[in-house]
Amino acid sequence: MEAILRIEGLSKSYPGVHAVRDVSLDVNRGETLGLVGANGAGKSTLMRMISGGEAPDAGRLVLDGEPIALRSAADGIAAGVVLVPQHLSVVPNLTVRENLLLGLAKRRRLPGEGRKLGNVDDEIAAVLARLGLTLDLGTRARELSPAVLKLLMIGAGLLRRPRLLILDEPTAILAGAEVERLFGILRALREEQQTIIYISHRLPEVLALADRVAVMRGGSLVATDDGAQTTTARLANLMVGGVVETPRRRADSERAASAAPRLVCRGLTRSPKIADVSLTVHAGEILGLAGLVGSGRTSLIRTICGIERADSGSVLVDGEEVTPRSPARAIAAGIAHVPEDRARLSVIPRMTVAANVTLPDKRPARPFARLPLIAPRTERTAVEPTLAELQIEPRHAARLAISTLSGGNQQKAVLARWLMHGARVYLFDEPTEGIDVVARAQVHALIRGLAAEGVAVLLSSSDVEEVALMSDRVLVMRDGAITHELGPDEISEAAIGHASLGEDAPAR
Amino acid sequence: MSENRSIDVQAPIPEGPGEDRARATTEAVAGPRDAVGASPRQRLGPFGVPAITLVIIAIFAFLSDDFLQSANLQDILRQSALSLIVAVGLTVPLIMGDFDLSIAAVAGFATTVVSVLIAREEMPLLVGCLLLLLIGLGVGLFNGILVAWIGMSALVVTIAVGSVLNGLEFAIAGSQQISSGFPPGFVSFARSMIGPIPTLFAIALGVAALVWVLLERTALGRDMRAIGGNAEASRLAGINVRRVRLLGFMLCSGLATAAGVLYAGQQAVAYPLTGLNVLLPSFAAVFIGAAAFKIGEFNIPGTVIGILIASIINNGLLLIDVASWAVYIFQGAILLVALLFARIVSRGGAEGS
């Protein structure tokens, strides 16, 4: 077997996180290499380094026997390494043709011999035919379904004649029939000796496609298995390293659904993002909120907690109308919100962990209840039990700047903030975004603990697995409205995935 | 929802009202100095500016026999006192990312108008001072409303307000020098000494200490620093960001007014638009301060050091008889060097993050 790409000792760390540690791996010519790992295992970082989107701290890449140094994604494409990212990265206002050629127009030609832009339409037609798409090249991207757009992104990748094509979670937003169709395309590409790295955490899919499977955990490569020999059980074990989570118990779910309503939204509207959303979360219930990125989940949560103002509709907590007009009023009404994008919306980077935890009202930091004075020692003593309970590392974290902690520990500190403050309703938006498996399990346990104490939890996530695992009931949003409700018996990753896409969303 | 389809392209983070929000000298410090494995550069960095101050003192002491004379040292403290009060006030909005360029006009307005009131119109001293203080707080309120509530650019608002105040100052005083009629008690107080220390400098240190307590040991100060660290996260945590920013502007204008009033007593002379020269020195001091102690963050001890450096250089250069134009060059150069220093120190180990 001849290696088309040798990865030699690649490492990358961000402040507080070792994203990828010393990974060495050969990718053989013409193979489909599966790359699996839990969220935060370092798959995406590794792939960004291979494709030039990110510079490694250490290590090197050898492509077709030549060491290469990639400074940008454009370098990667020029070298023949093309990454098709997980999220839809098309420009809605541009046409199919413009989207396919995005970034190439300036160079006036495609990579490869004599492929000028003028006569490239034949090639676009050929690529679309391979994908089984019949599209008018002048159609604007926003008129197409997500599934078609996903195929279009793969088409854009193929148009660049990659020596190595990297697909990051290509099936994440696809439903059953669309997945089968994609697999047909990928098998045909393999027949043509196209080298592919296929990233996913859906193990059966990987096993159905891959010649070999590489497993990452905590930033390291832990195994490279032969696709024909390995099993999903073995891969799952390697991925999580012993951390196994179980879904919520049905009995709990049913009990929660009959408890008193704690959070009620009536006809919440904020055009154009959310339209006439009504929902109820009972005491002790975890209500999952699923839907594609852009379906309005985040807007809904931001409206419930007063960051965005509703045009109409109301929010009730324990039967009392609150409809907050600012985050401060939402907090006063007993609504705690753990937002997405921790770095931008949750964390004050230079402040200590203790100061970040006591931020909402500083009450634990004040030695005299009547004076607005803060004593750092009082503060540390007050927060340390909670930090210990949440197993926030390192042990003396209270006095460290929060930016020195790993992503998972930062997120747990944000949770500690709202645990200590207390609330009747907790809104979580992507609570385990970018944190490792162990921390993810801890965060999940914490959210369950909260629900067990009788608070109402609204959990929004684009991680379908997480929603399926955690929720008592699931609401699915699409285009700003709730389109499906799944009861305890109906919750599954597949059901949520289908509902997210709308059942009527076949690829054209 | 199609506008959200091209998700990978992150929209630029809205900086909130006024895109000219002040950033401390460094965008992002890699980690605190007590992190495991901090480089020597990071551990010693916080003391670089104080060390440089000592070096500057040594150089001037070598070049001029008069420099270390107690009379000269007292001169330095006397010159520092009022700029220190202004600079301490300026530190507060800057910590929250808000520039206030009206400070010089506010201080000048206070000097001239309080002189008109107490020396020319013979208003009781205390009434005049209180009236000015109210006006000063009112200016801060006005700045704060325009910037924090309406969302106008702090840079432009405070320049405009400064210009208006300059005009009003001239209109109220007319083009006449006020040189008599100052209450003698006021003048002698402003020029008095507590032991070897000028009273005004002692007051300035007291103000600095109070503002330090405010910023480091009170809930309001914690909110101010949180807003400077991440305004949106602070808002989401329930802090009333607009109100706190407004208070910052009020504190800044209030202290600038107090310094202007005291300057009238110290000089016992007033003429429109010839008040305290504080704009560059104050900004220089606060930014030099961000290169000391807490690298990359504005902080009160740093501001105190910054003002002392500015005064020492000013004083030393006059003593060794350099041309007066050179003083300007030195002041600007020192500021640039301090910024460069902070940049270099805080980047240790944070390359490319």
What is the secondary structure topology, with strand pairs?
The complex is a heterodimer of chains A (508) and B (353).
Chain A: E1 3-14, E2 17-28, E3 32-36, H1 43-50, E4 58-63, E5 66-68, H2 73-79, E6 81-84, H3 96-100, H4 121-130, H5 146-159, E7 164-168, H6 176-191, E8 195-199, H7 203-209, E9 212-217, E10 220-226, H8 232-240, H9 250-257, E11 261-270, E12 274-282, E13 286-290, H10 297-304, E14 312-317, E15 320-321, H11 327-332, E16 335-338, H12 342-345, H13 353-357, H14 376-389, H15 407-421, E17 425-429, H16 437-452, E18 456-460, H17 464-470, E19 473-478, E20 481-486, H18 493-501
Parallel strand pairs in A: 3-8, 3-9, 6-7, 7-8, 13-18, 13-19, 16-17, 17-18
Antiparallel strand pairs in A: 1-2, 1-4, 4-5, 9-10, 11-12, 11-14, 14-15, 19-20
Helix pairs in contact in A: 4-5, 15-16
Chain B: H1 40-44, H2 48-63, H3 70-95, H4 103-120, H5 125-149, H6 154-173, H7 184-190, E1 193-194, E2 197-198, H8 199-217, H9 219-229, H10 231-236, H11 241-267, H12 279-289, H13 300-319, H14 324-347
Antiparallel strand pairs in B: 1-2
Helix pairs in contact in B: 2-13, 3-8, 3-9, 3-11, 3-12, 3-13, 4-5, 4-6, 4-11, 5-6, 5-11, 7-11, 8-9, 9-11, 12-13, 12-14, 13-14
Please explain how this structure is put together.
The complex is a heterodimer of chains A (508) and B (353). Chain A has 18 helices and 20 strands. Chain A has helices at 43-50, 73-79, 96-100, 121-130, 146-159, 176-191, 203-209, 232-240, 250-257, 297-304, 327-332, 342-345, 353-357, 376-389, 407-421, 437-452, 464-470, 493-501, and strands spanning 3-14, 17-28, 32-36, 58-63, 66-68, 81-84, 164-168, 195-199, 212-217, 220-226, 261-270, 274-282, 286-290, 312-317, 320-321, 335-338, 425-429, 456-460, 473-478, 481-486. In chain A, helix 4 crosses helix 5 (146-159) and helix 15 (407-421) runs parallel beside helix 16. Chain A starts with a strand and ends in a 7-residue tail after the last helix. Chain B has helices at 40-44, 48-63, 70-95, 103-120, 125-149, 154-173, 184-190, 199-217, 219-229, 231-236, 241-267, 279-289, 300-319, 324-347, and strands at residues 193-194, 197-198. With 353 residues, chain B is mostly helical. Chains A and B meet through helix 11 of A and helix 9 and helix 10 of B.
